[in-house]
Amino acid sequence: MKLDYNSNCCLKFQFLLCRSNVSLLGLGNHKEDSPFLNNVDAARKNDFYDRNLALFEEELDIRPKVSSFLSRLVNYTNITQGAREHEEEESANVSRKKAPKAPNMGTLMGVYLPCLQNIFGVILFLRLTWIVGTAGIAQSLIIVFMCCSCTMLTAISMSAIATNGVVPAGGAYFMISRSLGPEFGGAVGLCFYLGTTFAAAMYILGAIEIFLKYLLPQAAIFHASGPHGGDSAMLNNMRVYGTLCLSLMALVVFVGVKYVNKLASLFLACVIISIFSIYAGAIKSITHPPEFTVCMLGNRTLERDLFDVCSKTVVVGNETVPSQLWRSFCPEGNVSSAQCDDYFSQNNLTEIPAIPGLASGIISDNMWGDYMQKNDVMEKAGLSSVDAKGPAESIGMYVTADIATSFTLLVGIFFPSATGIMAGSNRSGDLRDAQKSIPVGTILAITTTSLVYFSSVVLFGACIEGVVLRDKFGDAVNKNLVVGTLSWPSPWVIVIGSFFSTVGAGLQSLTGAPRLLQAIAKDNIIPFLRVFGHGKANGEPTWALLLTGVIAELGILIASLDMVAPILSMFFLMCYLFVNLACAVQTLLRTPNWRPRFKYYHWALSFLGMIMCVALMFISSWYYAIVAMGIAGLIYKYIEYQGAEKEWGDGIRGLSLSAARYALLRLEVGPPHTKNWRPQLLVLLKMDEDLHVKYPRLLTFASQLKAGKGLTIVGSVIQGNFLESYGETQASEQAIKNMMEIERVKGFCQVVVASKVRDGIAHLIQSCGLGGMKHNTVVMGWPYGWRQSEDPRAWKTFINTVRCTTAAHLALMVPKNVSFYPSNHERFSDGNIDVWWIVHDGGMLMLLPFLLKQHKVWRKCNMRIFTVAQMDDNSIQMKKDLATFLYQLRIEAEVEVVEMHDSDISAYTYERTLMMEQRSQMLRQMRLSSAERDREAQLVKDRHSLVRMGSLYSDEEEEVLESPTEKVHMTWTKEKCEAERRNHTNAPENFRELISLKPDQSNVRRMHTAVKLNEVIVNRSHDARLVLLNMPGPPRDTGGDENYMEFLEVLTEGLERVLLVRGGGREVITIYS
User: Fold this and answer.
1) 278 closest CA partner among 501, 500, 468, 453
2) pLDDT given for residue 57 in this prediction
């Protein structure tokens, strides 16, 4: 029966399918199949899906099925903050463990309300009224706009990063470190940690201020000893109570975080109730303003708690007597006494409403600022006053400024009230849909808080008297909290609510900061923080909490809310700066993994956010900004110095790649100008049997020559097959990299595997580098022991490399006796670097000593340049011209011209040449006879096999002995046996040929040059630290390669350190600027 092509193919396919099904159904060898399947797949071998994957079964352990991969991906849960990034392998008791609780928090409870709680804080209740009174409504709105705009732009960038994949609960630190790398991540992570820690100190100081000023003033331990001692006494009280409060809070956090989280809702309710009471009070003030009054003496504001009535006299019965206020200003207490304070005598007392109300029109008076110096008295501009000086003792009766104020100071104090936007991203592990909730919740929270701040600024300016607004501690309103005087139904609503909210915010900060430090420590990018990664058995960061408490205590000891606020502003601004930078870098690089679900971002917005962060840092406090940047810079350099071995796919790596690509494309335009030429090295290293670098001083010399500048590629060749030698390649690369690190060589390593060493070196010379960033100079070692070895591979590979560099127009440097070269730790305090300039080869000989003298090893050596004059040269003129040339090159060196007039060939030269040629001929015959013996043994072993003709010594011998046909069939015959016997009888004749050999005249001339030059060089430079001379090129006829090696040996005999140099065919040094 005749089948067409298609039916035939179908039958073949069905037959193959049946065979594969038989083997997969278990009829084959189980022992062969099982090792390629994991346990799960082995248990389900009869599964139809697995049968269809037989072609991939050998790689299922490294390339899992799509179904198992997706199941692991779907079951992925967000790791807790500071935990390991990668899941542990499943153990046998996984099924017995309790299943983790699925995240179920939405946008409102998971992001919006936590952000509100963290953003609203102590500044709103304790300092916003003072900021409005000092800066005025207009400038206060500018301050709020700047701070809120900065956080809004940062929130947009953060939303883009947070929605670009699954964000474990590491907050800002995780986002920055994974976007910008471990160096930036560690630096900014620690800055964020310090900011959170100082925030805890600020909240505690705010709580203690509320407690001692408004809740229980009687609890003060220290009291004022004079009219100006109140400030120092208050600071000491803050330190004592702040330390006690910090210790109590740390104990609560240590005992259990769950109690802090349970109280968070209560604290948030306090904040919301307090804010609503402010709005209610402002609305009520339209018709029924609160009955708080301010006592004014002239236009000066008096402290209301120091007297009972705002009057100079009071009527007791029918008699007018001096009031308590009179007795404060008039020590004698007599109504008619002239011993009163002049200002008190000449000005009247008036009472003005502290809260005129929303409809009073006071907003026009509070529109512009009134910045004050320390101890300036609060004055109202509209009241009449007779200017007069009074005694210094009376100053304690007035409300005065406790610090000097400025716009920049107010920015630094207000900015912490805009922070806290990271609360949602910190809880990403508990969110049902983090990629949706974080952007929506955070931006809504910032919008809400910004509206509250804007409206509060306007309401405070429109309802409260200016002198009361500028009164930071409410001295003019009988020691009441200023914002509390506006609230409804009672000032105590604000006082109690703000106290609990600040305590809650402090607890939250003390809870979050240690976990952030633990996350940084567990990432192991900062070695000295490693101890803080440990904690209690349940993972609570005990040691990190202890360090957090110590740092927060430093903030407590400052004891001033106004001084702590700018410090934490710096650290938060540093964090926000790098969040914006991360988003901008990722957006501009267009990295393939940058696919945020949040689409309303742009790199320009991120850059604007960066600019605003930097501007706010220097506006707030330029010296704090420099300190914060210095701390971040030191941490960055420390992590970089320690070598953070982390690859997180960060944007800085992508930025480096983009910059490198741009630079390489620019370099591709053309070869570098002579002024920019520097040796870009390809250092060829040889590895020993243990895969260690055989001559590490080659790397030492390279590091001294380069001093960290330009390109250095270290290459090596492993002989063999790449598939079989991959492990050796990796081990060799690691060994070379370790040696490069020891010798401080900054560069790249490349190891290639080739069947022949010379081919591998040729590949390195051709292919190393990329684009315009390619080597222009090859450094290779001298083949030591080439005379003693019967194996010509070493010197033939050497000469072949010289020819390759010449063909590729590359410069070549061969350090001879490299083991005598100095290490990087040695110092030459004197000595000379001698340059023997025999032929002009592009100026390499002039440039190399100059580069070497830049290194500390050679710095104190003097440079001497020798050149050779022949019979018809004017040596005096040559010396003048050379000195002029060096002067124009700006190179300082001694110049000497050596005359070589004796051109007669000596008997020593003749004998040396003869010995060289006889030795070469004898070694050639020995290699031939040895090859014949080895071939005869192989033929006896297997007469009827196909053998490959060639040397067993080296690849190079193949070229000499290989017949035109690659393989021939050899038969052991009688004629062959007789021919072999005749070859052995010819040995005495070969020896007689050696005796009667006459040297070649060209070799004699070359030997004469080598001997005469060596005599001159040794005579002049025998004590030089280093001798550089031109390296002659190899002969065009490859038959004289062995003689070429002898010439080089003769040329360099008797010199301790020699550097043979060949130029690359172009000028490398110029006299022009």
Assistant:
1) 453
2) 54
Query: Within 13 Å and on the Cβ side, how many CA atoms surround 292?
Result: 28
Structure tokens at 1072: 């022009």
DSSP state of 364: G
With vertex at residue 569, the alpha carbon angle to CA 567 and CA 575, rounded to the nearest 5 degrees, is: 115
Q: Which residues contact 538 (CB under 8 A, 6 or more apart)?
A: none
pLDDT tens-digit map of 632-646: 888 888 887 776 656
pLDDT in tens, 416-473: 999 888 877 766 666 788 788 889 999 999 999 999 999 999 999 999 999 999 999 9
Q: What is the pLDDT of residues 504-526, one digit of tens each?
A: 888 888 888 888 888 888 888 88
Angle in degrees, CA 721, 722, 725, rounded to 5: 85
70 or 1053, higher pLDDT: 1053
Report how far apart, in Å, the C-alpha atoms of 387 and of each of 300, 328, 341, 697 are: 11, 19, 12, 86
SS3 96: coil
Highest mean pLDDT among 13-17, 834-838, 897-901: 834-838
Largest CA distance in the chain: 161
| Rounded CA separation 403/198 (Å) | 21
Distance of alpha carbon 733 from alpha carbon 692, whole angstroms = 10
2: burial class by Cβ within 10 Å (0-12, 13-18, 19+)? exposed
Write the single-letter amino acid at 518.
Q
- Region of 361 (left: φ > 0; alpha: ψ -120 to 50; beta: rest) is left
Query: Which stretches of 668-756 are DSSP H helices?
Result: 697-706, 722-742
Q: Nearest 5°: phi and psi at 1028?
A: -110, 130
Strand partners, 183: none
Coil/strand/helix, residue 753:
strand
d(CA 783, CA 954): 16
Range in 14-18, 276-280, 1068-1072 the model is least confident about: 14-18
